[in-house]
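Render this sequence as a predicted structure.
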Amino acid sequence: MFRGQKISKLMPILIVETEIAAPPEVCFDLVRDISLHVQTTKQTGEKAILGRTHGKIKLGETVTFEGKHFGIRQRLTVKVTAFERPRSFTDEMIEGNFKLFKHKHEFIEKASGTLMRDTLEWTSPFGILGKIVDAVLLENHLRELVSRRNAELKKVAENLSPQRGKDAEKS
């Protein structure tokens, strides 16, 4: 680090990409389905407890999730702040343990279906200690959480999608 550089300006950014043999519309709607979110995050015991607790979340709506992370039951309330079906939507934390948490979901049409890109940006509390936690624990935890969830979403989307049958016929 250079003298005078402000460490607080360094915000972790995590990008996870998942290829899915299903159209963007299918993937987009599945990702914003609250019941499916709960089902695909079973490892944390996640539940939707306030706001939109089932169905598909929309622009301006909020949801509060409660789940166990690092052995501690935690709550995170997010609000959908941007929404462009079926290309992207963004949810941002309005209440929770982070100073800032933003999750952009993008759905890029490909010949084989959809490239789903999750971009997470966050700022942990506790200054330099938070930066250490980000580097040592949090980034890997979030990558694992999003990757597992996306693997489950991929299964659901590909089982629902007529695209899968078309790809199988070509083989």
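Summary. The first helix runs from residue 24 to 31. The helical segments are 24-31, 34-40, 127-160, 162-170.
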